[in-house]
Protein backbone atom coordinates (compact mmCIF):
# COMPACT_ATOMS: atom_id res chain seq x y z
CA UNK A 1 0.00 0.00 0.00
CA UNK A 2 1.20 3.50 -0.78
CA UNK A 3 1.61 6.36 1.66
CA UNK A 4 -1.51 7.18 3.64
CA UNK A 5 -3.55 9.83 1.78
CA UNK A 6 -6.63 9.99 3.97
CA UNK A 7 -9.85 8.29 5.02
CA UNK A 8 -13.20 8.99 3.34
CA UNK A 9 -16.81 8.01 3.92
CA UNK A 10 -18.06 6.04 0.92
CA UNK A 11 -21.60 6.89 -0.18
CA UNK A 12 -22.60 3.77 -2.10
CA UNK A 13 -25.89 4.94 -3.56
CA UNK A 14 -28.29 2.42 -5.11
CA UNK A 15 -26.97 1.26 -8.49
CA UNK A 16 -23.42 0.45 -7.42
CA UNK A 17 -24.17 -2.14 -4.70
CA UNK A 18 -27.36 -3.51 -6.24
CA UNK A 19 -26.43 -3.75 -9.94
CA UNK A 20 -22.67 -3.28 -10.36
CA UNK A 21 -20.76 -4.32 -7.22
CA UNK A 22 -17.65 -4.54 -9.36
CA UNK A 23 -17.52 -0.74 -9.38
CA UNK A 24 -17.44 -0.75 -5.58
CA UNK A 25 -14.88 -3.56 -5.42
CA UNK A 26 -12.53 -1.99 -7.96
CA UNK A 27 -12.71 1.48 -6.44
CA UNK A 28 -12.09 0.32 -2.87
CA UNK A 29 -9.32 -2.05 -3.95
CA UNK A 30 -7.42 0.56 -5.90
CA UNK A 31 -7.93 3.31 -3.34
CA UNK A 32 -6.38 0.99 -0.75
CA UNK A 33 -3.43 0.36 -3.05
CA UNK A 34 -2.77 4.10 -3.05
CA UNK A 35 -3.27 4.68 0.66
CA UNK A 36 -6.84 5.98 0.59
CA UNK A 37 -8.97 4.31 3.27
CA UNK A 38 -12.73 3.81 3.03
CA UNK A 39 -15.33 3.75 5.79
CA UNK A 40 -18.92 2.73 5.20
CA UNK A 41 -21.78 5.14 5.90
CA UNK A 42 -24.07 2.98 8.03
CA UNK A 43 -27.73 3.81 7.59
CA UNK A 44 -27.30 5.94 4.46
CA UNK A 45 -30.35 6.09 2.18
CA UNK A 46 -30.84 6.83 -1.53
CA UNK A 47 -29.21 10.15 -2.43
CA UNK A 48 -32.14 10.68 -3.59
CA UNK A 49 -32.15 11.01 -7.40
CA UNK A 50 -31.69 14.69 -8.30
CA UNK A 51 -33.23 14.84 -11.77
CA UNK A 52 -36.53 13.17 -10.94
CA UNK A 53 -37.07 13.46 -7.19
CA UNK A 54 -35.45 16.87 -6.70
CA UNK A 55 -37.37 18.39 -9.58
CA UNK A 56 -40.75 17.12 -8.37
CA UNK A 57 -40.48 17.64 -4.61
CA UNK A 58 -37.58 19.79 -3.46
CA UNK A 59 -38.77 19.98 0.15
CA UNK A 60 -38.77 16.20 0.58
CA UNK A 61 -35.64 15.58 -1.48
CA UNK A 62 -33.50 18.07 0.47
CA UNK A 63 -33.86 16.66 4.03
CA UNK A 64 -33.12 13.13 2.75
CA UNK A 65 -29.92 14.35 1.09
CA UNK A 66 -29.07 16.41 4.19
CA UNK A 67 -29.50 13.34 6.39
CA UNK A 68 -26.96 11.45 4.27
CA UNK A 69 -24.45 14.26 4.58
CA UNK A 70 -25.07 14.45 8.33
CA UNK A 71 -24.07 10.79 8.68
CA UNK A 72 -20.63 11.57 7.23
CA UNK A 73 -20.37 14.67 9.43
CA UNK A 74 -20.95 12.49 12.48
CA UNK A 75 -18.05 10.33 11.23
CA UNK A 76 -15.96 13.52 10.83
CA UNK A 77 -15.14 12.51 7.26
CA UNK A 78 -15.52 13.85 3.75
CA UNK A 79 -17.68 11.83 1.34
CA UNK A 80 -16.77 10.16 -1.92
CA UNK A 81 -19.21 8.74 -4.48
CA UNK A 82 -19.11 6.51 -7.57
CA UNK A 83 -22.24 7.88 -9.22
CA UNK A 84 -22.83 11.23 -10.90
CA UNK A 85 -26.44 11.25 -9.70
CA UNK A 86 -25.33 10.84 -6.08
CA UNK A 87 -22.66 13.48 -6.66
CA UNK A 88 -25.19 15.90 -8.10
CA UNK A 89 -27.78 15.28 -5.39
CA UNK A 90 -25.50 15.52 -2.36
CA UNK A 91 -23.40 18.38 -3.68
CA UNK A 92 -26.43 20.35 -4.83
CA UNK A 93 -28.13 19.90 -1.45
CA UNK A 94 -24.93 20.98 0.30
CA UNK A 95 -24.70 24.03 -1.95
CA UNK A 96 -28.35 25.05 -1.45
CA UNK A 97 -28.13 24.82 2.33
CA UNK A 98 -24.90 26.79 2.47
CA UNK A 99 -26.24 29.51 0.18
CA UNK A 100 -29.71 29.77 1.71
CA UNK A 101 -29.85 29.77 5.54
CA UNK A 102 -33.63 29.41 5.62
CA UNK A 103 -33.42 26.26 3.49
CA UNK A 104 -30.84 24.84 5.90
CA UNK A 105 -33.00 25.80 8.87
CA UNK A 106 -36.04 24.01 7.45
CA UNK A 107 -34.00 20.88 6.62
CA UNK A 108 -32.59 20.83 10.14
CA UNK A 109 -36.05 21.31 11.62
CA UNK A 110 -37.04 18.03 9.96
CA UNK A 111 -33.77 16.27 10.80
CA UNK A 112 -34.15 17.33 14.42
CA UNK A 113 -37.11 14.97 14.70
CA UNK A 114 -34.70 12.05 14.27
CA UNK A 115 -31.86 13.54 16.31
CA UNK A 116 -29.69 14.65 13.41
CA UNK A 117 -28.34 17.96 12.14
CA UNK A 118 -26.70 19.10 8.91
CA UNK A 119 -23.72 21.36 9.66
CA UNK A 120 -22.02 21.70 6.27
CA UNK A 121 -18.64 20.33 7.34
CA UNK A 122 -18.29 17.30 5.01
CA UNK A 123 -17.13 17.97 1.46
CA UNK A 124 -18.71 15.81 -1.24
CA UNK A 125 -16.05 14.37 -3.57
CA UNK A 126 -16.41 12.42 -6.76
CA UNK A 127 -14.10 9.40 -6.73
CA UNK A 128 -12.65 10.35 -10.12
CA UNK A 129 -11.52 13.70 -8.71
CA UNK A 130 -9.75 11.93 -5.84
CA UNK A 131 -7.99 9.69 -8.36
CA UNK A 132 -7.05 12.66 -10.53
CA UNK A 133 -6.17 15.26 -7.89
CA UNK A 134 -5.41 13.42 -4.63
CA UNK A 135 -3.63 10.30 -5.90
CA UNK A 136 -2.41 12.08 -9.01
CA UNK A 137 -1.36 10.99 -12.47
CA UNK A 138 2.28 10.40 -11.56
CA UNK A 139 1.49 7.87 -8.83
CA UNK A 140 -0.90 6.07 -11.17
CA UNK A 141 1.72 5.91 -13.95
CA UNK A 142 4.19 4.34 -11.51
CA UNK A 143 1.80 1.46 -10.74
CA UNK A 144 1.01 0.42 -14.31
CA UNK A 145 1.84 -3.25 -14.94
CA UNK A 146 -0.10 -3.75 -18.16
CA UNK A 147 0.21 -0.63 -20.33
CA UNK A 148 -2.96 0.09 -22.27
CA UNK A 149 -1.11 1.16 -25.41
CA UNK A 150 -3.09 0.49 -28.57
CA UNK A 151 -6.44 0.74 -26.75
CA UNK A 152 -8.74 3.49 -28.04
CA UNK A 153 -11.04 4.91 -25.38
CA UNK A 154 -14.24 6.89 -25.87
CA UNK A 155 -14.79 9.19 -22.89
CA UNK A 156 -18.24 9.59 -21.37
CA UNK A 157 -18.58 12.12 -18.54
CA UNK A 158 -22.31 12.15 -17.85
CA UNK A 159 -24.41 15.20 -17.07
CA UNK A 160 -24.30 15.58 -13.29
CA UNK A 161 -20.52 15.38 -13.03
CA UNK A 162 -20.12 18.54 -15.11
CA UNK A 163 -23.21 20.69 -14.62
CA UNK A 164 -23.94 23.18 -13.18
CA UNK A 165 -20.25 23.95 -13.61
CA UNK A 166 -20.18 26.75 -11.02
CA UNK A 167 -21.35 24.27 -8.36
CA UNK A 168 -19.43 21.19 -9.49
CA UNK A 169 -16.13 23.07 -9.72
CA UNK A 170 -14.62 20.74 -12.34
CA UNK A 171 -13.76 23.48 -14.83
CA UNK A 172 -15.53 24.04 -18.12
CA UNK A 173 -18.42 21.66 -18.79
CA UNK A 174 -17.55 21.98 -22.50
CA UNK A 175 -13.93 20.84 -22.25
CA UNK A 176 -13.63 18.19 -19.51
CA UNK A 177 -10.31 16.37 -19.23
CA UNK A 178 -10.30 14.07 -16.18
CA UNK A 179 -11.05 10.80 -18.00
CA UNK A 180 -8.66 11.63 -20.82
CA UNK A 181 -5.89 12.39 -18.33
CA UNK A 182 -6.42 9.13 -16.44
CA UNK A 183 -6.70 6.77 -19.43
CA UNK A 184 -3.67 8.36 -21.07
CA UNK A 185 -1.75 8.01 -17.79
CA UNK A 186 -2.06 4.22 -18.18
CA UNK A 187 -1.08 4.29 -21.86
CA UNK A 188 -4.43 4.32 -23.69
CA UNK A 189 -5.54 6.84 -26.30
CA UNK A 190 -8.66 8.98 -25.79
CA UNK A 191 -10.45 9.37 -29.13
CA UNK A 192 -12.82 12.22 -29.99
CA UNK A 193 -16.26 11.32 -31.25
CA UNK A 194 -19.46 13.10 -32.24
CA UNK A 195 -21.62 14.26 -29.33
CA UNK A 196 -19.13 13.11 -26.68
CA UNK A 197 -20.88 15.24 -24.04
CA UNK A 198 -24.32 13.89 -24.92
CA UNK A 199 -26.40 12.34 -22.09
CA UNK A 200 -26.31 8.54 -21.76
CA UNK A 201 -30.06 8.60 -22.39
CA UNK A 202 -31.33 7.65 -18.94
CA UNK A 203 -31.34 10.92 -17.01
CA UNK A 204 -34.32 12.73 -15.56
CA UNK A 205 -36.46 9.60 -15.43
CA UNK A 206 -36.46 9.22 -19.23
CA UNK A 207 -35.42 5.54 -19.05
CA UNK A 208 -38.49 4.73 -16.95
CA UNK A 209 -40.91 7.01 -18.81
CA UNK A 210 -39.92 6.50 -22.45
CA UNK A 211 -37.63 3.52 -23.00
CA UNK A 212 -37.61 3.91 -26.79
CA UNK A 213 -36.34 7.50 -26.71
CA UNK A 214 -33.92 6.68 -23.91
CA UNK A 215 -32.35 3.74 -25.76
CA UNK A 216 -32.22 5.63 -29.04
CA UNK A 217 -30.02 8.25 -27.38
CA UNK A 218 -27.81 5.46 -26.09
CA UNK A 219 -27.65 3.86 -29.54
CA UNK A 220 -26.54 7.13 -31.12
CA UNK A 221 -23.77 7.61 -28.57
CA UNK A 222 -22.46 4.05 -28.94
CA UNK A 223 -22.56 4.19 -32.76
CA UNK A 224 -20.69 7.50 -32.77
CA UNK A 225 -17.96 6.05 -30.55
CA UNK A 226 -17.62 2.87 -32.59
CA UNK A 227 -17.45 4.89 -35.83
CA UNK A 228 -14.12 6.42 -34.75
CA UNK A 229 -12.63 3.08 -33.71
CA UNK A 230 -13.22 3.12 -29.96
CA UNK A 231 -12.44 -0.20 -28.29
CA UNK A 232 -14.37 0.68 -25.14
CA UNK A 233 -16.11 3.53 -23.34
CA UNK A 234 -14.78 4.70 -19.96
CA UNK A 235 -16.92 6.76 -17.58
CA UNK A 236 -17.37 7.82 -13.91
CA UNK A 237 -21.06 7.07 -13.20
CA UNK A 238 -22.85 3.92 -11.97
CA UNK A 239 -26.19 5.06 -13.41
CA UNK A 240 -24.64 5.81 -16.81
CA UNK A 241 -23.00 2.37 -16.54
CA UNK A 242 -26.43 0.77 -16.16
CA UNK A 243 -27.77 2.58 -19.21
CA UNK A 244 -24.74 2.04 -21.42
CA UNK A 245 -24.17 -1.59 -20.42
CA UNK A 246 -27.62 -3.06 -19.84
CA UNK A 247 -29.28 -0.61 -22.23
CA UNK A 248 -26.85 -1.52 -24.96
CA UNK A 249 -27.66 -5.21 -24.51
CA UNK A 250 -31.36 -4.35 -24.79
CA UNK A 251 -30.67 -2.54 -28.06
CA UNK A 252 -28.56 -5.43 -29.37
CA UNK A 253 -31.31 -7.93 -28.55
CA UNK A 254 -33.99 -5.80 -30.24
CA UNK A 255 -31.91 -5.32 -33.38
CA UNK A 256 -30.53 -8.85 -33.46
CA UNK A 257 -26.89 -7.74 -33.31
CA UNK A 258 -24.03 -9.01 -31.16
CA UNK A 259 -21.41 -6.29 -31.64
CA UNK A 260 -21.42 -4.25 -28.45
CA UNK A 261 -18.99 -1.63 -27.15
CA UNK A 262 -17.44 -2.60 -23.79
CA UNK A 263 -18.43 -0.21 -20.98
CA UNK A 264 -15.85 0.22 -18.20
CA UNK A 265 -15.97 2.34 -15.04
CA UNK A 266 -12.80 4.43 -14.80
CA UNK A 267 -11.45 2.69 -11.66
CA UNK A 268 -12.01 -0.69 -13.33
CA UNK A 269 -9.94 0.51 -16.30
CA UNK A 270 -7.12 1.71 -14.05
CA UNK A 271 -7.34 -1.59 -12.16
CA UNK A 272 -6.82 -3.56 -15.37
CA UNK A 273 -3.72 -1.47 -16.12
CA UNK A 274 -2.46 -2.21 -12.61
CA UNK A 275 -2.70 -5.93 -13.35
CA UNK A 276 -6.00 -6.86 -11.71
CA UNK A 277 -7.93 -9.31 -13.85
CA UNK A 278 -11.45 -9.05 -15.21
CA UNK A 279 -13.00 -10.84 -12.23
CA UNK A 280 -11.09 -8.81 -9.65
CA UNK A 281 -12.56 -5.56 -10.99
CA UNK A 282 -16.03 -7.03 -11.51
CA UNK A 283 -16.20 -6.86 -15.28
CA UNK A 284 -17.09 -10.55 -15.55
CA UNK A 285 -20.64 -10.03 -14.26
CA UNK A 286 -21.87 -7.34 -16.63
CA UNK A 287 -23.39 -7.49 -20.10
CA UNK A 288 -20.44 -6.06 -22.04
CA UNK A 289 -17.00 -7.56 -21.46
CA UNK A 290 -13.48 -6.21 -21.72
CA UNK A 291 -12.14 -5.45 -25.22
CA UNK A 292 -10.20 -8.17 -27.02
CA UNK A 293 -7.18 -5.85 -27.13
CA UNK A 294 -7.08 -5.80 -23.32
CA UNK A 295 -7.84 -9.52 -23.00
CA UNK A 296 -4.94 -10.25 -25.35
CA UNK A 297 -2.59 -8.26 -23.09
CA UNK A 298 -3.49 -10.47 -20.12
CA UNK A 299 -3.22 -13.65 -22.18
CA UNK A 300 0.18 -12.71 -23.58
CA UNK A 301 1.45 -11.80 -20.11
Q: What is the secondary structure topology, with strand pairs?
A:
Layout: E1 6-11, H1 15-18, H2 21-33, E2 36-40, H3 50-56, H4 58-75, E3 79-81, H5 84-99, H6 101-111, E4 124-126, H7 127-135, H8 137-142, E5 152-155, H9 159-162, H10 165-168, H11 178-185, E6 189-191, H12 206-209, H13 211-227, E7 232-235, H14 238-255, E8 263-265, H15 266-273, H16 292-300
Parallel strand pairs: 1-2, 1-3, 3-4, 5-6, 5-7, 7-8
How would you sum up this structure, described in words?
The chain is an alpha/beta fold and 301 residues long. It has two domains: 6-126, Up-down Bundle (Glutathione S-transferase Yfyf (Class Pi), Chain A, domain 2); 146-300, Rossmann fold (3-Layer(aba) Sandwich). The protein contains 16 helices and eight strands. The strands form two sheets. A four-stranded parallel β-sheet has the order 2-1-3-4, with helices on both faces.
The rounded distance between the terminal residues' Cα atoms is 23 Å
Mean pLDDT: 92
User: What's the CATH topology name of the largest domain?
Assistant: Rossmann fold
Report the sheet with the most strands, covering strand number, pairing sense and barrel closure.
4 strands, parallel
Strand content: 5-15%
Point out poorly predicted stretches.
Answer: none
Strand order of the largest sheet: 2-1-3-4
Q: Strand tally, please?
A: 8
Q: Any guess at the CATH architecture of the largest domain?
A: 3-Layer(aba) Sandwich
- Overall body shape: globular
Number of domains: 2
Quaternary organisation: single chain
Order of helices and strands: EHHEHHEHHEHHEHHHEHHEHEHH
Name the helicity range: 40-55%
In DSSP terms (H or I, runs of 4 or more residues), the helix count works out at 16
Structural class from helices and strands?
alpha/beta
Radius of gyration from the CA trace?
19 Å
Look at the structure and give the CATH class of the largest domain: Alpha Beta
